[in-house]
Design a protein that fits this description.
218 residues; alpha/beta; Rossmann fold; six-stranded mixed sheet; 6 helices; 36% helix
Amino acid sequence: MADELHPDAQEFLELAEQGPDLHTLSPPEARAMQRKLSLPSGEPEPVGAVHDTVVRGQGHGVPLRIYVPEGDGPFPVLVWAHGGGFVVGDVDTEDPVGRALANAAECVVVSVDYRLAPEHPFPAALHDVYDATAWAAEEADRFGGDPNRIGVGGASAGGNLATGVARLARDRGVPEGPAFGRLADGDPVEVDGETVTPEDVSRSRADRFPVETEPKGR
């Protein structure tokens, strides 16, 4: 067994030692620090396609990032919730995970940019992941997914949300009907009476996480 840490792990630990403890920071400060530590450097792992989209949740838009593997579908679909103690994390910091899962499992990954606490207390995040799962079940064929093979998963706090969504789906069933708006391929969609575009989603994410980053490739 090798005694040396992987260079990526070593770099992460060195960066973490340079900053304050996460629990001593305000939520916005913690998110900024977490992004600084977690945003990938270098070229991202290639996948077949990546789409940023917004779906209508319960009175608001829920941003998603969809990873489609190479090859011919339809593929199984995994709705994925990032970790971060329900307070930090987003689809950008989870980007390497989404890409790796899509390639390793040969599935479509729907990564959910759910609302964060404390600004949005429980059950806001749970509702967002549930609504994303319902949308994926309705619209799977639009992005090469198989509506009969849908799973939900997550890391850390995201695993908690995935468990909750699975129980909700068991108890309620996945909603049917045109209840979810869609923003894809550059087309605007009406959310809460307002027109939302992909540029609006990008600006919203930048406002919430004002950390300078290099644009990622797909």
